[in-house]
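ARCHIVE CARD
Drawer: 12
Card no.: 0347
Subject: one protein chain, sequence and derived structure
Cross-reference: see card 0346
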Amino acid sequence: MLYEIKVPETGFSVTQGTVVKWHFRVGDRVSKDDTVVSVETEKISVEIPAAVSGILSEIRYDVGSLVQVGAVLGCISDDEAEVVLDEAIEKPVSVRRTGEGLEMPEGPSFAQEGRRRSITPLARNVARALNIDLERVAEGIGPKGRITKADVLKFAESMRSDREVEQEKSPVTVMEEASKDGEVIKLTGWRKVIADKMTASWKETPMICQSIVIDVTELTDFISSLKDTKNLPRLTYLPFLMKAVQAGIRITPEVNAYCYPDRFIIQKNLNVGVAIDVQGKLIVPVVKHVHEKSIIQISEELKELIEKARNGKLEPKDVQDGTITISNMGVTGIDGGFSMILPPQTAIICAFTVREVPVVINGSIAIRKCMGVSISYDHRAVQGAPGARFSKEFQLRLEDVKSLLLTLR
């Protein structure tokens, strides 16, 4: 019996990934729960385990292939018996017509040209997976020249060696020649997936962007006052930003929605994704049900997710179901810009570096700690005025910490 190895779902916005490694070769024995193949999306690397013990009988996608969610990557057979199968491999020969009728060509007769060869089912599966014509495989090592898995793999290895020699002889492309003094980085794997997704976002999403400056002096002082408090996690701005989003979507609920070409769907749950950089790769873990959690709970969960991301331990559930995204650019020293929406979400918030700036308050100049924020909206769901109302509520809540803490649970 054959068991299919499929690309699992890793989030609503993930539709494809790239095969980065096969941990076994066709014909190898695998045990249940062994990692058979690794697939990388723009969010996480997924290690796909064997559902059963058996033989890896088929590989449908090579390393580097772009695959859709749900695609069958290969198959595992729970029957490793090499049952003999007599398979006829016939080569038709050409004939030519003369004035007297048909004339057979010189050489072996048609009956001699066609022959029956003994081939095991496992050898046939291996050949099919590696796209090898069994006619090209010499007589096998099995009884009476039976072709086995080992024969096919040996032939495949010789083919691979021939290709490598040919590649060494072939000239480089014009592009690579032009770039010989620099480093060529191809858009493959997660880079390719992110590139495709952001290109689609830019082409298909009519974005508008609003910028605000938030006085976070009170919030910064509050966070600092709790720095040495026992039994409390280290607080950052992010949990407060998430709760301010909660306040804002009460005013403009369409900010927390999924938008499609013909409709948008306001989401009941507030699941906030946080865009972080891990060794040059953009990853967006998601804090679920922010509207049901306290600042402390959000902070603890966020810390756990970031640690998992940095250690490469994120699971599919950790990046699924985000309804809005926050990109924290504070540590970069950047003061402005905008981020691109992650479809089908309708908004993304970009928070910039907190700086001390002179501010006029009641006619006097004071030094305040201010954070620049930009919010990008999908104009199909969030028009300018509703977006402005969300932006203003978001700002007011962060500037009034007591109100934020007292009214939001």
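Annotation on reverse: Confidence is low (pLDDT under 50) at residues 80-114. The chain has two domains: 2-169, 205-407.
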